[in-house]
Predict the 3D structure of the following.
Amino acid sequence: MTSTPAAPEPAGGPAGGLDTAIAARLKRSADGLIPAIAQQYDTGEVLMLGWMDDEALHRTLTTGRCTYWSRSRGEYWVKGDTSGHVQHVKSVALDCDADTVLVQVDQVGAACHTGDRTCFDADVLPLGQPRPNQ
């Protein structure tokens, strides 16, 4: 089994450039990450889920472009830098437990790496189906 690279501790301490009041509120996973849900700001369409550490959140808040931490590559990535499918940030909110971020964006092009508009439209599961042996 391969291990997932841990998010690095940003320069300047655990919060990096992130406002210390925001950093103090965050409830991170054991690897220092929080899930970040990207949602189309004007339609409410859920586009994708990515992961952020304090530095990625700081970059997202200050640049107006979504920055995520790639668990598989072990590096930061700005949505759209290679694909052109940019996410322009409209608002960022923490959920009530401060363990998930909702980033409302204006998505340019596909949000999913497969080329689909969202990561959630290709494999809709059936509802109301009885389980086997019932």
